Every structure is written in structure tokens, then in C-alpha cells.
């Protein structure tokens, strides 16, 4: 079952239009456009996740450094 990239509603094939139509918001895309749109969304999410993980790792490393520098003072 295809999902709408705008509202995640159910997309149904309309044989008259030869397009996928969202039953919730009415977005109309060809199957190729729908596949391309979801691919772009997945790639963007992966990039955002990678960036988030990098920031999280950098904060963790800084915290470890900070804690180790405080242990040396006492």
C-alpha cells in the first residue's frame, strides 16, 4: 500500500488519471514521482540522522574530556 509523502494517507491508483491519488489530501503523483519523492525523503532523513549522531558524539567526547580534566585537578 502506497502512502502519501505529504500527509501519510493512503494512495490509490486512479485508472482514469493513470496517477496515484491520496484519499486524504488529494495529492496526485505518477508512480515514478511518488517513488522519487519517497527516495528523496529517505535520503534527507539519513543525512539528518548522520548529522545528529555526529553532534551527539562530539558532545559526548567533550563531556568525557571535561570530566577527565576535572579529575586531574583534585
Describe this structure in words.
The structure is a single chain. The chain has 74 residues and is an alpha+beta fold. The protein has 1 helix and 4 strands; from the N terminus they run ββββα. It has one domain. It is 58% helix and 18% strand. A 4-stranded antiparallel sheet has the order 1-2-3-4. It starts with a strand and ends with a helix.
Describe the global form.
rod-shaped
Q: Work out the count of structural domains.
A: 1
Oligomer: single chain
Rg to the nearest angstrom? 23 Å
Give the helix/strand class: alpha+beta
Strand order of the largest sheet: 1-2-3-4
Tell me the layout of helices and strands.
Blueprint: E1 2-3, E2 10-14, E3 19-22, E4 28-29, H1 31-73
Antiparallel strand pairs: 1-2, 2-3, 3-4
Amino acid at each position: 500500500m502506497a502512502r502519501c509523502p505529504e500527509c501519510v494517507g493512503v494512495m490509490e491508483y486512479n485508472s482514469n488519471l493513470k496517477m496515484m491519488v491520496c484519499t486524504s489530501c488529494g495529492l496526485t503523483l505518477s508512480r515514478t514521482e511518488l517513488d522519487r519523492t519517497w527516495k528523496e525523503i529517505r535520503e534527507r532523513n539519513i543525512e539528518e540522522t548522520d548529522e545528529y549522531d555526529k553532534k551527539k558524539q562530539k558532545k559526548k567526547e567533550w563531556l568525557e574530556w571535561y570530566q577527565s580534566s576535572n579529575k586531574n585537578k583534585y
